[in-house]
Design a protein that fits this description.
By secondary structure, the chain is of the alpha+beta class. It has 7 helices and 11 strands. The strands form 2 sheets. A 7-stranded mixed β-sheet has the order 6-7-8-9-10-5-11, sandwiched between helices.
């Protein structure tokens, strides 16, 4: 079942949605609605070329990485030990989200979702210290990174990119190690990909996800 949202700040029960997680259409991308959404594992995902209204997803099986389970391959360890790259937090959020949109000409694809409105919405969340970025640098040059939304002890990943091989992996490992040191919860990958599965991603059910998400 797919619900039509109105101007009121609310979401229906996502458990009633479609198998792929889509359960609502409409509403807006205001900070208030996005904050409400992410606090229940809900996120917007839609092609801005073909849809005038946000589409809201909440899969009942969540693909996540527990920071203590991050897999660092031998080749990645070798790369990290070279000291060629370093990672930072929130040093270039605007650059990261823009590069996520433009990397590999994603913006030109029919299903592109990182449009002007989405970028503006997450910039506002970043200004509110709710959206965050992780950057990978080679000297002063941005090599890759990722961004997402912080909810309590969890990081909900939105997108990543690399200008050089493995730069986004380095950012993800840096994030996971930081979260492990701080005793943080999970990195929500939203959907399974071979790349994220190789780094330790696995599925948990929505109830477990919410329990971890709401721990403070």
């Amino acid at each position: 079942m797919i619900f039509q949202l109105d101007d009121k700040l609310w979401f229906p029960n996502p458990r009633l949605g479609e198998e792929d997680g889509l359960f609502a259409v409409g509403g807006d991308l205001s900070p208030e609605r996005l904050i409400l959404a992410y606090n229940y594992g809900i996120f917007p995902w839609f092609s801005f070329r073909y849809h005038d209204q946000p589409h809201w997803y909440c899969p009942m099986k969540r693909f996540v990485i527990f920071p203590s389970e991050i897999h660092v391959s031998h080749s990645m360890r070798t790369l990290m030990n070279k000291g060629q790259y370093h990672c930072t937090f929130n040093k270039a959020f605007q650059d990261i989200i823009t590069c996520c949109s433009l990397s590999k000409k994603r913006f030109l694809h029919d299903g592109a979702w990182l449009g002007v409105d989405i970028i503006k919405a997450y910039r506002k969340l970043h200004e509110m210290n709710i959206a965050a970025s992780v950057e990978t640098w080679e000297g002063n040059d941005l090599s890759g990174g990722l961004y997402g939304v912080v909810v309590n002890n969890c990081f909900i990943g939105e997108s990543m990119f690399s200008f050089v091989p493995n730069a986004s992996k380095l950012a993800l490992i840096h994030l996971a190690r930081f979260m492990q040191e701080k005793g943080k919860g999970i990195i929500d990958c939203q959907f399974e990909t071979p790349h994220l599965k190789s780094m330790g991603g696995r599925f948990i059910d929505y109830d477990e996800y919410l329990e971890i998400l709401h721990q403070k």
